[in-house]
Amino acid sequence: MYRYDEFDHGFVKARTAQFRDQVERRLSGELTEEQFKPLRLMNGVYLQLHAYMLRVSVPYGTLSSPQMRMLAHIARTYDRGYGHFTTRQNIQFNWPALKDIPAILDDLASVEMHALQSSGNCIRNVTADHFAGAAADEVADPRPYAEILRQWSSVHPEFSYLPRKFKLALIGADEDRAAIQFHDIGLQLKRDATGALGFTVYVGGGQGRTPMIAHKVRDFLPEQDLLAYVEAIMRVYNLNGRRDNKYKARIKILVHETGAEEITRQIEAEFQEVLKTDILRLPDEEIRRIAAYFAPPALPERPARSSALEAARADSRDFADFVDRNVTPHKTAGYGLVTISLKPVGGIPGDATDAQMEAVADLAERYSQSEIRVSHEQNLVLPHVALDDLPALYAGLREAGLADGNAGLVTDIICCPGLDYCALANARSIPVAQDLSRRFGAPERQKEIGELKIKISGCINACGHHHAGHIGLLGVDRKGEEVYQITLGGSGDENAAVGALIGPGFSIADVGGAVETVVDTYLKLREGPQESFLAAVRRVGQKPFKEALYGAA
Amino acid sequence: MNALARVPVEPAATSVAAPAASAPAEPALWRNGRFEADEWERVAPDAAVPEGPALLPLTRFLAERQALAARNAPLGVVVQPDEALEELAPYLDRVSLVALVFPKFADGRASSMARVLRERYGFAGELRATGDVLIDQMPLMRRCGFDAFEVVNEPTRRQLAAGKWPDVPYYLQPTGAPAQLEVPAGTRPWTRRPG
Ligand code: SF4
């Protein structure tokens, strides 16, 4: 993991001191809420429906056990005993008192964390594949580059007042687990024919009210040019992105209105200018120095086939299901990556109590080199678990109420906070997620349905990524009534697609039944269990689902 | 530092007093770490160009540049955020001041224009921030190359007068020509501290 040096500590400390002063000025009344707003946003503090919310950055979703324990401490001490992991790999605390926030930031700084770049029209916390540095299918770990981008984008003097927020995501494998094509900039780390590292660059993806898949602007960008190229993109956007309408201000609209070819030309021209000075070229030794922080842990040798695991599988159906769903192949034989589901049946997707965070920190210390990841699917991951240790880990997770073996299944729902917290919401989203997870909760039913991603947003801002859901649910307001629209066929992976609206919406009471109808229709028409929901939708289109929901036309 | 390579001006003997709160505020010029008298005259679109240092809109400067070349006093140009800086680039050697506009503090276009002006075109004259210039953005503006600020906002004036400069002096980006001395810090090639 990256470690702060003196400079990083000084930076975060100075920022916290500055914010403490601003909070004091707000509490004393010297600053109005209006004047305070841009200042608090720079430090991750939002005003929600009922209270201030603090969003803490978890850069590229990587946490250590001590950091997770600090998050538990904050949840216990300053909040109501829980935190909410978000689709941007961050964690939100929903109930902190403003007067406590400087103390929380001090606590965070003590474990090398902060809440910078988690709000405002700046370059936001950089996300990455939650399996980075461990997955068997990876070319190279993208996190060193994410860390370089995190540093370079922190309080950037030129790019802190962009037309709109700006999100970057990185992957290092062909399977896209970070939905890079739905980001303002998506970067895929690759090797060229000579073995040199570089990036395929995508620009202009996004969700919100105008979902767009990103355009590829570069096949291969040498790694040393990463900052120069990103600066070129940022400058083209900062100068030309629309500022007359906040709904048209993201770079996706600029790309769309300018045309992918022309925007690519502009970016390349700007890039050539940036290259004329050397200041952003990344020296190889510096890339390697940062990469060394992310060197894979020295994992003791373990047998590739674990007899302890096999025995436990034979013993317990639940355990076997858990292993099948929640364990992913690791680079190192004898190890796996374990997804810890934060989607218990009837629970709130992404929420974890302080006790659960403590438990995860302990289990990570014991079984995963003290390393934890937050996934954009609002789950946690232990990235380096010996297969031999899986039975013991599973027992520990059960004790903490974290042993749901539903990763990637129908109950592994992404859901935004919705009307229970969010001032922008049209509809409650959490109760819909809870209802769905109860309907589909029976293990046999989930298994039968197989891979199916349901994503729920309480309004058109799409924080719940409904456009990328195999089944997407979008909360709309119909004359004061909370109504959900259903989209089908979206996907956030390497074959990214925007889901298509299937027809008129359903009341919040009926939407659960409607989703069941969709799923039952799929089960009837699929060519076999090997044909996933998404594959079936791509094959048959919307018609059979429409007929099932609304009757034959 | 290009910040020092401006057209020499007489330093103001007295700092500009903040106007009464009710009067429509005349901008006060913050330069060289203090409020200074502004020797530049803004020229209305159809007014005659005065004898002394004259600040013209870009369109007028471009339209009249031949006639203006005959003048003997310094010229300045105001560039709006939606205007093309490239059009000014060929004539920058005749320009002593460029004023860039922040229509709202949250509109950061002028920050990019400032860096292009300094780093790409090598502009060494005065680079002035105008419009919605607020204390919290000023340190960032200075890092983009601005070395003069027209300040209307009353609290900002008060804080400047009281010596406040809310900079976090740990920089994680090299910018080519900040209006302050910045030196490499630590091992990373992109980290800087104030010099
Ligand atoms: S999608 Fe809408 S309701 Fe949900 S969190 Fe985002 S803004 Fe709020």
Hetero groups in this structure are: iron/sulfur cluster
End-to-end Cα distance of chain A: 57 Å
For the residues shown, what is the average pLDDT of chain A?
95
Q: Most extensive interface, residues per chain?
A: A-B, 38 and 38 residues
* CATH architecture classification name of the largest domain in chain A: 2-Layer Sandwich
How would the global form of chain B be characterised?
globular
CATH topology of the largest domain in chain A: Sulfite Reductase Hemoprotein, domain 1
Q: Main β-sheet of chain B, in a few words?
A: 8 strands, mixed
- The total of helices of chain A stands at 18
Indicate the CATH architecture of chain B. Answer: Alpha-Beta Barrel
Assembly type of the chains comes to heterodimer
Q: What is the number of E strands of chain B?
A: 10
The outline of chain A comes out as globular
CATH class of the largest domain in chain A, named Alpha Beta
